[in-house]
Amino acid sequence: MPKVIFFIGFFTSGIAMMLLLLQKIIIFNIRKVWERKKVIQEKKEEILKKTTEKKINFENFDNDKEEELVGINEKGATEKKIKSTNRSEIIKMLRRSETLVSRGNLMEAKTILIEILAIDPENIDVNSQLAVVYLKSSEFIKSETIFRKILLSRPNDTKILTNFALSILEQKNPEKIPEAIKNLQKAAEIDSKNPHRYSNVGQAMFFIGELEDAEKNFRKAIQFSPRNLEFLFFLADTLIAQEKFSEAKKVFYKILEISPFNSDAKAEIQKIENMGF
Fold it and tell me: 41-242, what's its fold?
């Protein structure tokens, strides 16, 4: 009888230990899932922040002194010749405004540009620069309005297309975002060997949750610039957002091949390994 009691006690204890072990495994897995979801959400927030605050950059305009200043009207492009004295003064004032913009003095730059437009209201170069100033001043609707008009006469200008798209994206209006993406895609088609064009499209695609398209565009950017860390980080973040952790880990290791002491890549690898990948 004591042996039976001992056996039953031992058997019961064994079951209890197994249940405890099973409970620990379940808790461990729940924590892993929770940590995985947390990492995915963090990555989505991180790349969205990059997209809306930093990476799709303004494109400044290099205006050539020797080129004829061209004007625009509501129907499209028309050449607007102005007196040489006015032309010389406009070029000087435009250069001054560009210097002010580069120094961050947007208010004074805006004043000068508006003064120029009082002399030559249809000047494309001046309107382009003013639209950029509005963009940098967070006056996005004004910027969009000017760029939209300029596109009538310069429909294939990649700088105009990119800045126009950015002025729309910054408004965060879901109804307008497809138009912004369409213009970024057009810029990529025209300037097809420029990896930044594809990165811009990728960021916009991520912004609307089209992660597969975002991934494709980041991969295309990397084809043209395989050692660009910014593109590689974007790709890795997009893979994480799709729960492709093993692929993302490989990309982070690629970053370490290029930049062996990159602490961000090392930290991301550690997070992925903590999740069991």
Answer: 1.25.40
